[in-house]
Amino acid sequence: MPYTLITGASGLIGRALSTSLNANGGTTPLAMSRRGADLDVASVQGDFARFEDLRQLDRYEIEAVVHLGAVTGGCSEHDAMAVNVEGTRCLMRYLIDRGCRRFVLASSIAAVGLQSPDFRPRSFPIADEHPCDDRHGYGFSKYLMEEVTRYFHRQNPQIDATNLRLAAIYPDGKPPETEPDCTPGPWALAGLTQMSLRDAVDVFNHRAAPRDLPGVRARGAM
Predict the structure, then answer these.
(1) Upper half-sphere CA count for residue 189 (Cβ side, 13 Å)
(2) Which among 18, 113, 127, 221 could disulfide-bond with 133, CB atoms 3.0 to 4.6 Å apart, if both were Cys?
(3) pTM value?
(4) Which of 120, 111, 113, 123 is nearest to 147 (CA)?
């Protein structure tokens, strides 16, 4: 039986995506979380950055992965590199060696450097291929995570990888305030767009589906 592995399955998107895949059929979700997902789906508890923990997946046929597990903005440089970069490399190497060819990864708009108040884009509009000008570590780690997918694609041209640069996700039924806050924020040129949890799940479902042409791409999920 083929499975779609979901890392970070105990988080907001991971829980909703696991439930959606389980209800809709087509592929069977396999949840992975350090804390345990407590979901009515097949699951393992462990750290995707540790090969010892990944060995728990040996008995499953994994055809795709939605990689949501990460440390987020405000983390230390060490944690950003250890989890978002080396952890992703570890996860992808294990899965590729076992025949998985489809990857969808949660990236961030910070990958171009937008998280810094000192960021100045090199061109307008800001292209998906804009170089990384991050100064704080988190955005650089997401940029390097995307580079990890390109590195593995160079080795394995049949791999399909999508790096989704997420918007700010709000729970269904709890939309953000309708009145805009005009107070200048710490980001000099832009802010995160808002996206409902349901729409985010639909995007991940769509990108995790089989595609005709393999490749690597970065896309804004908004």
Answers:
(1) 16
(2) 113
(3) 0.91
(4) 111
**Helix/strand/coil percent split, the chain, to 5:** 35, 25, 45
* Residue pair 12/169 in contact by the 8 Å Cβ criterion: yes
When divided into structural domains, the chain yields a total of 1
Question: How many residues make up the chain in this entry?
Answer: 222
Give the pair of three-digit tokens for residue 154. Answer: 């160079």
- Ramachandran area for residue 23 (φ above 0: left; ψ -120 to 50: alpha; else beta): alpha
Instruction: Report d(CA 206, CA 137) in Å as an integer.
Output: 30
Total H helices, total E strands in the chain? 6, 9
CATH number (domain holding residue 79): 3.40.50.720
The residue range of the domain holding 173 is 2-221
Give, for all 222 residues of the chain, the pLDDT tens digit. 899 999 999 999 999 999 998 887 678 999 999 987 778 899 999 999 999 999 999 999 999 999 999 998 889 999 999 999 999 999 999 999 999 999 999 999 889 988 777 888 888 888 888 899 998 899 999 999 999 999 999 999 999 999 999 878 888 877 776 555 555 455 555 666 788 999 999 999 988 888 878 999 998 865
Residue entry with tokens 């061109």: 123
